[in-house]
Design brief:
Length: 490
């Protein structure tokens, strides 16, 4: 209030605000509404489920009870991470209320937890979005009440210091504040939220992985995933729909650092309520979701198949985990799409949900009981989607383009040389089984030492190759000797 005249003008504008408002979408009309009827207990859901519409024609008092749970869960096959969660899942429980509702919010911090937490809901009008009123020590509960003034899809997150660490550990979720008339009905509503994670170990390095604050500050995530884990929504856990059905995705981005270029491979969004707001855009390929932001995307499934949800910053999808699936059953429509379904090559090892043998092999390696058979099984699963892309699943390669690994005399002549080929790639002329190849194999430097050892042991013991075994230490030694840049080719 520096200037008296300005402050008078502001007061007048505020007083007139309600009267001028013609659209029910803004907050001011909801401000005067009072809760009617008995208080309602909000039904919260775990991702990817979304609570049913409120189907209410009047504002109500809604009681929300959310518990913070710190727990170790898988972040990738054979990799665990200690997540801090709202409701036991990452992202946290989905909350659904109606514009004009009065929300009595209870935040509980489980007594077994180690850290204090609070909650900042972006759908709350008030200091800190509730954070200032919800600081809660382990074994305690806080309560505050807010009016849901503005409709929209809002992120909520923990805002306890160090905020970045709390968010990086998975402390975020979505709250939908429905417009008074509700949203148009659809066949399926799903809850998908992206997050970036920072572990001390490399991508897919097995075991319990601690948080790496330095990587987080540098914004160099080890994992970028949907719904808290690589593979949370692939294979048997894929989202489902049938041809002809309408699907609505409530998509959030918890960050803490990255912006998401959200895309569904093979679909076009009929509508996107961009930024989780009131208006929608139509016919969208990729929608940008800021950290701490959201979008609602809707599409009709016209042909059957597997649709792949990705962050189109595409290395995040194929090398950091930001890949989910929606599987649609139903009759084909050749007038829309001709066929050849599920591109296993495109989707890579995520097409096969089962990487269990890989973690078994890692566990066996840790306990010193790793057998050649363990390695072969793990290697087979890793070969799919990595080497099979070029050398084919049966190891036969493609004539004139990719040399065979099956009965390869080149491989048999010096099996250890294959370690170098996988780590650093191969180019120039090679002769395999009497046929010349002058092509380029890129370095597979994203694979860790275990993975290279297992894949090569599998190759050596398949398709009539001479057998034998490659050990992790041999790979480590070869990697350390590298004079060429790991991903440079040449
Ligand atoms: Cu927290």
């Amino acid at each position: 209030m520096k200037h008296p005249l300005l402050s008078v003008a502001a007061t007048v504008a505020m007083a007139l605000g309600g009267a001028f408002s013609t659209t029910p979408a803004t907050g001011s009309t909801a401000a005067g509404q009072t809760a009617q009827g008995e208080p309602v207990h909000a039904v919260l859901t775990s991702p990817p489920q979304v609570p049913a519409p409120t189907n209410r024609k009047h504002p109500a008092k809604v009681i929300v009870e959310l518990e913070v749970v710190e727990k170790e869960m898988p972040i990738s096959e054979g990799v665990t991470y200690t997540f801090w969660t709202f409701g036991g899942t990452v992202p946290g429980s989905f909350i659904r209320v109606r514009q004009g509702d009065t929300v009595e919010f209870h935040l509980k911090n489980h007594p077994a937890n180690k850290m204090p937490h609070n909650i900042d809901l972006h759908g709350v009008t008030g200091p800190g979005g509730g954070a200032a009123s919800s600081f809660t020590a382990p074994g305690h509960e806080s309560q505050f009440t807010f009016k849901a003034l503005n409709q929209g899809l809002y992120v909520y997150h923990c805002a306890t210091a160090p905020v970045g660490m709390h968010v990086a550990n998975g402390m975020y979720g979505l709250i939908l504040i429905e417009p008074p008339e509700g949203l148009p009905p659809v066949d399926h509503e799903y809850y998908v939220m992206q997050g970036d994670f920072y572990t001390v170990g490399k991508y897919r390095e097995k075991g319990a992985q601690p948080f790496d604050m330095e990587k987080a500050i540098d914004e160099r995530p080890t994992y970028v995933v949907f719904n808290g884990a690589e593979g949370a929504l692939t294979g048997d856990k894929a989202l489902k729909a049938k041809v002809g059905e309408r699907v609505r995705l409530y998509i959030g981005n918890g960050g803490p650092n990255l912006v998401s270029s959200f895309h569904v491979i093979g679909e076009i969004f009929d509508k996107v309520w961009f930024e989780g707001g009131t208006r929608y855009q139509e016919n969208v390929q990729t929608t940008l979701i800021p950290a701490g932001g959201s979008a609602i995307a809707e599409f009709r499934v016209d042909v059957p198949g597997t649709y792949v949800l990705v962050d189109h910053s595409i290395l995040r999808a194929f090398n950091k985990g930001a890949l989910a699936m929606l599987k649609a059953d139903g009759p084909e429509d050749k007038t829309i799409y001709s066929g050849k379904e599920v591109d296993a090559v495109y989707v890579g090892d995520r097409a096969e949900p089962n990487l269990a043998a890989v973690s078994q092999a890692t566990a066996a390696a840790a306990s010193g009981t790793l057998t050649r058979e363990d390695q072969i099984k793990a290697g087979q699963q890793l070969f799919t989607g990595t080497c099979s892309v070029c050398h084919q699943a049966n190891g036969e390669g493609l004539p004139g383009v990719f040399p065979p690994l099956a009965k390869s005399d080149f491989l048999a002549a010096d099996p250890k040389r294959a370690i170098d080929i996988v780590l650093h790639g191969l180019s120039g002329k090679v002769t395999v089984n009497g046929k010349e190849f002058t092509s380029v194999m890129p370095p597979m430097s994203q694979l860790n030492d275990d993975e290279v050892a297992n894949i090569l042991t599998y190759v050596l013991n398949s398709w009539g190759n001479p057998g034998g075994r490659i050990e992790k230490d041999e790979v480590a030694k070869m990697r350390a000797q590298a004079t060429r840049p790991a991903a440079g080719g040449h």
